[in-house]
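Hey,
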Amino acid sequence: MELQTIHDRRPGIVTAFKNRFKHFVPARSHMRLRIFYTRLRFLALFPVMAGTRHYCPCCRRRFGRFFPDGLRLQVFADKDIVGGAWTPGTRCPWCWSSERDRLLCAYFEHRPQLLSAGGRVLHLAPEHSLQQHLRSAHGVSYVAGDIASPFAMVKMDILMLPLASCSADAVVCNHVLEHVPEDSKAMSEIFRVLKPGGWAILQVPIARGIASTEEDPAVQDPKDRERRYGQFDHVRLYEQQDYRRRLESAGFEVTIENALELCGPERVREWRLNAREDVHLCRKP
């Protein structure tokens, strides 16, 4: 039997209330209200959630448990998609960080030279939890950009970045390219704004169970996209070697490091990381 998303299983009255709420509340406030609600929920469940078993490197707090997260979709099992599937405890109860947010925080701790050099860091489609981590890095000039995110400092389109060529030392772009129809153009734009020797971390969902990247511009229905790609607003599902080739075609030198090999099994468990997820570090020669 095909699994359903968490959203599909919500009672109709709850969905109706949420839609009405979003209609009256400005979009810029949605994520802030979600984080506020999450913290209230954590405080209400403090006797259950409190503890020191797990650690979030984004907000630098310890918890006994994390909240469940992800989608209940059959496609995650059928195509062996790394990340995004429902898991019982991977969402930080304080800063709302996900597995992939914490993985990048862990990566920066294991590769401190990336941020210790300072410079201008461009964060595209900024996540609140990861944003706090990057902004706290010593000597970093941080710029966050997005079309509509409440955490963006500058409104920008990834296909036409309003930055001069060779003006950024680093770019962080976490699970964005799978939303962009012209991903090669977006990769070229990121390459353009990077200085020679600069780096970019460009993360996307990777399907281990497919032979080649799956994409079809004719697929427009959100339900069809959810069933084929794992999310209603995704336009493709990447196969890892093909994704690497696309990055290299844009001019990048690509290094892939696995979370388990990078952090070790104890830290993967403690920080609630996905042991199968890889980090794609892309450098401009």
